[in-house]
Amino acid sequence: MKIKAALYNADHMEYGLVTIPFPIPRDQYDDTIKMLEALDIGDPLARDCTVEEIVGSVPSLKCLEGRKINVDELDYLVKRLDSFSDGELAQFQGMAVKMGLSDMTDLINLTFCCQEATVITDFSDLEQVGRDHYMNLHGSCASMEELEQLDGMETALLLISENEGVITPYGVVYDNGMQLSQAYHGRNFPAYLYEDSLMVITLNPIHTDANDSESLWLYFPTSELQIERMLYRDGMESEDFARLEVQGDNLPAAVKMACNLEQESVFDLNAMCAAISKLTQADCLKLDAAESFAKPKSAAEIRRLAENLEPFDFVPNVHTPEEYGRYMIQDSGHFDYDSNLDEFYDYGKYGRRCMERKQGMFTEQGYISYQGTLTLEELMREDPAEQYQREQEESMGMGGLT
Q1: Which residues contact 264 (CB under 8 A, 6 or more apart)?
Q2: Which of 32, 121, 146, 225 is the most buried (most CB within 10 A)?
Q3: What's the order of all strands across the beta sheet hosting 242-249?
Q4: Strand partners, 202
């Protein structure tokens, strides 16, 4: 699902319009915010963007035209709607019209409860209407046995005869006693995983009763700017005032063992996830081996490893000197292997000799060695190019003093 919203600053219409796609693509978030800031709008919390027009596959959102919205609220709302089936979208749009909703908080909360309503868009199949209505009444949970015994047509006819439906552009709506959810209160967004993420974390204020606070949910990797804006929405001065908890992750196994992730900075964790997300599956296996070899102690060091895997020689699924020697002679491409001479090769001896020269080690993932010019400590401490530039500058500075 994609919609586009034309937004402007109602206090400075001379600044013009900017058209934003929703959901905002992850890699376009920073540029989107910059475009809004150029119009002096796009505050992290305030509703300061006036909607000129909304176009797309959710026509009920035209109720926002002429109103002020918050860009992150609209982004979250459209992400929620993007996961909806056609039936759920009809439920959302029908109930939005029936209830006369146009406030962003109400519209977001409607996404969490509209599935309780019944919206009939096609009266030609009352059997299916009855089944859908039964599912709506039972929280979309019903056994196959229940559905087989259900008289869908009778259920549909009872619904129509005993309840007064409201005709909307999206179907005839029966609310079934639905009450508007209160999942969203205007600051932190309720948990919702829209895209695949390597890590899901929550931040909870340290000096606030857990029962009185709402968790801030973050999904990595994301834009660093988005993290800053979500902290602002939460009212935190910084992440130092919060307790971090990892709610889920898809990280390589060695990453989770290298350090206590819950003691790390959210920005370091996000940068680490951003680096890992660019790796192929084969590179992730190599990273696991590199971590066993280099023993990083922080998310920042893991990130440096992920960004600088090239100096590592890695042979997957090799765990003995003989297997390593066999790989080097037969498969590495360094030799013209002759199978007729196989019985004369001492694979174990050659493997041990290579290991002594390269000073590598066997890991669960395979054999790995490091052939870089920097020490491992230097490699993991900072970006090699940045380090070289700094050392050159320091060298020039020392020369100027003598």
Answers
A1: 244, 298, 299
A2: 32
A3: 216-220, 199-205, 242-249
A4: 217, 245
Sequence letter at residue 102: S
pLDDT in tens, 190-219: 999 999 999 999 998 886 655 556 899 999
Is residue 114 within 8 Å of 178, Cβ to Cβ?
yes
Residue 201's Cβ-side half-sphere holds a number of Cα atoms within 13 Å equal to 27
Nearest CA among 366, 372, 290, 371 for reference residue 324:
366
- CA 384 to chain centroid, in Å, comes to 29
Angle subtended at Cα 91 by Cα 88 and Cα 93, rounded to the nearest 5 degrees: 110
| CB-based burial label for 62 (10 Å; 0-12, 13-18, 19+) | middle
Least confident of 154-163, 227-236, 264-273, 309-318: 154-163
Cα 256 vs. chain centroid, distance in angstroms?
A: 18
Question: DSSP letter at 298?
Answer: S
Integer distance in angstroms from the first to the last C-alpha of the chain?
65
Handedness of CA 371, 374, 378, 384 (dihedral sign): negative
Separation of alpha carbons 313 and 293, rounded Å: 11
pLDDT tens digit sequence for 383-397: 655 555 555 666 665
Write down the residue that tokens 């909870």 correspond to. Answer: 204
Cβ(131)–Cβ(147) below 8 Å: yes
CB 325 within 8 A of CB 350: yes
Q: What's the rounded Cα separation, in Å, for the pair 254 and 365?
A: 10
Virtual CA dihedral for 76, 79, 84, 90, nearest 10 degrees?
A: 60
Does the bond joining 44 to the residue before it have cis omega, within 30 degrees of 0? Answer: no
Q: Which residues contact 53 (CB under 8 A, 6 or more apart)?
A: 5, 6, 65
265: Cβ contacts below 8 Å, ≥ 6 apart: 239, 299
The Cα 340–Cα 342 span in angstroms is 6
Closest to 368 (Cα-Cα) out of 385, 376, 250, 278: 376
Locus of tokens 């600051």:
187
Pair 243, 264: CB distance under 8 Å: no
